[in-house]
Amino acid sequence: MKDKIVNFVNDVVKEMKKVTWPTQEELKESTTIVIVVCLAISVFTYAVDIGLTELFKAIY
Question: Is residue 16 part of a domain?
């Protein structure tokens, strides 16, 4: 059992060395894009919600 755990940890270390990590600039850019898209989707959802609410108020 101990050998399996040691092999697993060694494999994890090997794989982590293969990972290409983003630079700080790439990370900032990606984060900005995610925040902007989330805000846009939130505004769209809010607008649709208000529109449907008013539509249903007018119908009923």
Answer: no
